[in-house]
Automatic annotation (TrEMBL):
Subcellular localization, as worded in the UniProt entry: Cell membrane
Lineage of the species this protein comes from: Bacteria, Pseudomonadati, Pseudomonadota, Gammaproteobacteria, Alteromonadales
Segments crossing the lipid bilayer: 6-25, 45-66, 78-99, 123-144, 164-185, 192-210, 254-275, 296-322, 354-378, 399-418, 424-442, 454-472, 478-498, 546-565, 571-589
Pfam family, one: SSF
Protein known as: Sodium:solute symporter family protein
Superkingdom field: Bacteria
Membrane topology type: Multi-pass membrane protein
Primary localisation category: membrane
Keywords, in A-Z order: Cell membrane, Ion transport, Membrane, Sodium, Sodium transport, Symport, Transmembrane, Transmembrane helix, Transport
Family membership: Belongs to the sodium:solute symporter (SSF) (TC 2.A.21) family.
Reaction catalyzed: L-proline(in) + Na(+)(in) = L-proline(out) + Na(+)(out)
Amino acid sequence: MNLSTLDMVIIFGYLAGTLALGLYISRLASRDMSAYFLGGKTIPWWALGVSNASGMFDITGTMWLVSMCFVYGLKSAWLPWIWPIFNQVFLMVYLSIWLRRSNVMTGAQWLNTRFGKGRDAELCQLVVVVFALVSSIGFIAYAFKGIGKFAAIFFPWDLAPDTYALIIFAVTTLYVVKGGMYSVVFTEILQFVIMTIAAIAVGVIAMSLVSPEQLAAATPEGWAEVGFGWQLGLDWSGVIDSVNDKISSDGLELFGIMVMMMLFKGVLSSMAGPVPNYDMQRILAAKTPSEAAKMSGLVSLVMFFPRYMMVTGLAVLALVYMGPEIQAAGGEFDFEQILPYAINRFVPVGLTGLLIAGLLAAFMSTFAASLNAAPVYFVNDIYRKYFNPDAAPERYVALSYLVSFVLVLIGIAVGFMLDSINDIMQWIFAALFGGYAAANLLKWHWWRFNAYGYFFGMLSGLMASLALPLLLPDTHPLMAFPLLLLISLTGSVGAALLTPAQDDEVLKAFYLQVRPWGFWGPVRDKVLTETPELEKPPMGRDMANILVGIFWQLSLVLIPIYLVVRDYQGVLWSVALLVVGSVFLKFFWYDKLQD
């Protein structure tokens, strides 16, 4: 595709402006570690929330969502549960508050709150550092693969996708590494505004160009239905035959079982809390625990409408106007490139430049957030703790620059070895995060769980997830989740029961500071003898808020989808669900927030 001069001016003007803004703000980040990695805990909660939403509005994930909407229709609204998107509900209801009460800089440092400062706690911190670095490399490879595929469609030079990715990575890495959390947050707010304008415009274009009758003629029976049974029930034969092969390769024919597995994995992963990435860093960067909770709630509220306006808009445009071409191409079409092809064909000059700038912004947001979150684990929890505890703040910040560059290089190397976005996405969210779930679920909810249990649980889960592609290459990562969970759970519980319980004083201090619910009876009884006025944690209320919150969040996904396909009855039902959920959460969540 040869972009117009206007589009090129918009794109490169945006990239230059973002780079300049990031470097200008960077002077605020260089003061010390807290300023660089957490913005000095002075950034407003709404800014952190919009920044977090922008970081999740990534180009690679959006390309995947467009391909899923194209293939699975309205049933694709359930597929983000693989991440799971409803972990934000668990965070806003209680986990963000629990995490922020620790008042630390990293997830590894948080473990001192739970397990004390002995040798066993140090082992826990080391394994979290390793997990954070592996996770960061996975996200960098994920972003690398997506941005290369995207750029190759639009830019006029005859370069390979990976070459384009290298160029864009070079620009983004410069402002992210230099600017830290300040740069990430404030450039992401700008990026989110641009992306929202462009995304809503795409949805409106689709609504003006595609009628419900045209969409029905271009899709199989059941495509426009959200409900599902055990079988997927979508037969694309005679419409676009190659889509049936795509469904088979995705392993989603037994759709009901897969959604149940996503829910099972998603609930356990959500209760385990955020993995040590950008989501956790924004929680720790909030001013207070209640602001951390409000920040997590805002993510769902602002992210889904613009994103799904664009996702659904591009999917229906491609179905109606590109469907015959894709059918003629047979099995040669790459469904992950529907997004750039649809923009190429249907978005007018000027708006194309804005949309590409917005999608580049989405990529830069995700990449920036992932890269900013990881170096602090090495610098703060390894170098500062064991090698140079009294160095000048500038030295720690300078070392974080070096760690960031090394992580980018390794992530790029992994990206070169991948064939598709789906490969790395499924491994990160189903396998890697699956190995994380057991130990981190137990650390919050079971008093007898100790540091050795956490270390061996995390280690066994991490090793199993890394070994999965080598030992079981044909197994869908989601279907391997029960095995990964069992391995990690065995390591966690076995090591915990074979070693002494954590010291009483450590457990009581943790319970008093964080006030978790779960299996804390013996510790709670001891704390209450010393602090009888302590209120009981609101487990029942939290569970009710989570149940309502999941359906509240689902309504935020369905409203833009129904709107773009012009199913106004579906819009009304979804808005009604949103209103009822919002009223419930106002009284039983928002009004009950405490620091």
